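Researcher: Sequence recovery benchmark, item below. Answer with residues only.
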């Protein structure tokens, strides 16, 4: 079997190039929204996606900025659903994800740094990439209802990990404030592959891991499923980026101790009895 991409080595190389503990002053099956409330997530993806447009109807004067995309996979047993492929009758599990896209800024008041500080609660990382795969206790918040409170007739449109402007990520621990004790929570592992892309330090292994084969039908036309690679190519600074050089013959791979083998597409995980819910006493 081919070896997996050594994300830890790539993350450490990214951290050597940029330390985010130093700050400046100043989302074939319809996926339903996850249940609101306390849950467990793992950071599954950290992608730096280049310079993107920031202007909107509300803020038309906002200038383009570098952005990063964090994807969290909910691994709480009650959040993981069992589905059946109607064509093959194969049964497997799917887990909801919550994506957060923020401008990549070292300002201490930026959402990027606020999010990184919560990811790096124990102070062991200097770059968000080093938090890939780590588990967190969180609160899932449903939002986006058209008008007024969320109801059956006025449903939420998305789920996020932010409440009253504050990210809800915490250390994966069950704390008893009265007894003054805490207990580490045994978070289930990710069901899906981790993904990592560092804009200033791209390598072909990380790029290949983003590829999605196939097409789907939309408005009567066949559309590529390979949206992640296409998204990166749509960055405003793509033509001047190290990624452009890499894809056009440049040699920008990071050095590794051992050669990294080709990407292996893992088979869909079959249904198995999951572990006991570590949050049973919290929900």
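Model:
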């Amino acid at each position: 079997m081919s070896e997996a991409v050594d994300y830890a080595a790539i993350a450490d190389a990214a951290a050597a190039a940029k330390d985010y503990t130093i700050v400046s002053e100043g989302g074939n099956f319809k996926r339903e929204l996850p249940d609101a409330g306390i849950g467990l997530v793992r950071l599954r993806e950290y992608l730096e996606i280049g310079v993107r447009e920031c202007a909107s109807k509300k803020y038309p004067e906002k200038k383009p900025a570098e952005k990063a995309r964090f994807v969290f996979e909910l691994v709480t047993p009650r959040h993981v659903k069992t589905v059946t492929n109607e064509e093959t009758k194969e049964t497997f599990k799917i887990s909801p994800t919550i994506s957060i896209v923020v401008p990549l800024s070292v300002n201490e008041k930026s959402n990027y740094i606020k999010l990184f500080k919560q990811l790096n609660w124990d102070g062991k990382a200097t770059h968000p990439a080093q938090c890939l795969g780590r588990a967190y206790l969180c609160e899932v918040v449903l939002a986006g209802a058209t008008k007024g409170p969320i109801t059956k007739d006025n449903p939420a449109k998305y789920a996020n990990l932010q409440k009253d402007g504050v990210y809800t990520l915490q250390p994966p621990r069950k704390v008893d404030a009265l007894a003054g004790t805490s207990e580490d929570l045994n978070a289930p592992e990710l069901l899906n592959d981790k993904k990592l892309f560092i804009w200033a330090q791209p390598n072909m292994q990380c790029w290949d891991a983003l590829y999605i084969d196939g097409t789907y039908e939309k408005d009567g036309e066949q559309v590529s499923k390979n949206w992640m690679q296409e998204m990166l190519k749509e960055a405003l600074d793509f033509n001047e980026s190290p990624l452009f050089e890499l894809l056009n013959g440049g040699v920008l791979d990071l050095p590794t101790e051992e050669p990294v083998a080709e990407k292996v597409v893992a088979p869909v995980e079959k249904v198995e009895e999951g572990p006991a819910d570590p949050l049973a006493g919290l929900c």
